[in-house]
Write a structure and sequence with these properties.
Layout (H helix, E strand, L loop, with lengths): L2 E4 L2 E3 L3 E4 L8 H19 L2 H11 L1 E2 L4 E2 L4 H4 L2 H14 L5 H18 L12 H10 L3 E5 L4 H10 L8 E3 L12 H10 L6 E5 L2 H10 L3 E5 L6 H5 L4 E3 L5 E4 L1
Parallel strand pairs: 3-6, 3-8, 6-7, 8-9, 9-10
Antiparallel strand pairs: 1-2, 1-11, 4-5
Length: 250
């Protein structure tokens, strides 16, 4: 089987596991799409004050479009982010804790219904070409994202790249999200590959730590997301500009 060339390093592997936002699609448009829908839902269901406090708490400023790349909106699975919304509702004295959680869950459900695929996702340059080359040479591919399974799968399908993934996993498919190894281990199980035959490709230290915790062969950091090279160098085995830098050695 062909090998993978990442930077100047040749890697013998069978499975490539990709992060989504910041790795194969632009991160900011996805997060802004989510933030706007959730802000609108919280404002409508409860009040603008709660939505404003929620935005600050999850790390987004919708006035200038700035997002904290290490905040809950960017890093936390939905089930954790809902708790942030519930806390804002509770602190504003709109409900007791149990009722606040129910209101937060409803606000997020309403926001999900208001959005449509691809949920702001825009392919990063070279993604399609790289996936086509990998699949043409027999590599298995998987997606492991903090996003929900439904949104991830629908986004990939809308972007016409769903068929290039053997497995799609969201944070709601496992008990523990990143940086726990659960998604990688499940991807390996479903593709019948050992973690030692897999590589993790992502744009954040959390992606790299997930790979390390699963004991994959190599963790490849890409600079197409908001994380600096300096931060990635602390945890990645290899760093490349983007997925476009991954090549197949025949």
């Amino acid at each position: 089987m062909p090998n993978l060339l990442a930077g100047d390093r040749e890697v013998d592997c069978k499975l490539l596991i990709f992060d989504k936002d910041g790795t194969i699609v632009k991160q900011k448009p996805v997060l802004l799409c989510l933030a706007k829908a959730r802000f609108s839902s919280l404002s409508r269901l409860i009040e603008a004050q709660v939505a404003e406090k929620w935005a600050e708490a999850v790390g987004v400023n919708l006035r200038n479009g700035e997002i904290d790349s290490e905040g809950p909106l960017a890093m936390a699975p939905t089930r954790e982010e809902v708790l942030v919304a519930a806390l804002m509702i509770y602190q504003c004295r709109h409900a007791g804790w149990d009722a606040a959680k129910q209101l937060a869950e409803k606000a997020y459900e309403d926001a999900d219904r208001a959005m449509a695929p691809p949920y702001g996702a825009v392919l990063l340059p070279g993604t399609l070409k790289t996936l086509q080359a990998l699949k043409a040479q027999g590599f298995k591919t998987a997606l492991a994202t903090t996003d929900s399974h439904k949104r991830a799968q629908e986004s990939l399908n809308e972007l016409k790249i769903g068929a290039y993934f053997d497995v799609v996993l969201g944070a709601d498919d496992v008990d523990r999200g990143k940086p726990a190894p659960d998604m990688i281990l499940k991807a390996c199980e479903l593709t019948k590959c050992s973690p030692r035959d897999a590589v993790m490709v992502g744009d954040s230290p959390t992606d790299m730590l997930m790979g390390k915790n699963a004991r994959v062969k190599v963790c490849i950091g890409v600079l197409s997301g908001p994380t600096s090279r300096e931060k990635l160098e602390r945890v990645a085995d290899i760093i490349v500009p983007s997925v476009m830098s991954l090549q197949v050695l025949k």
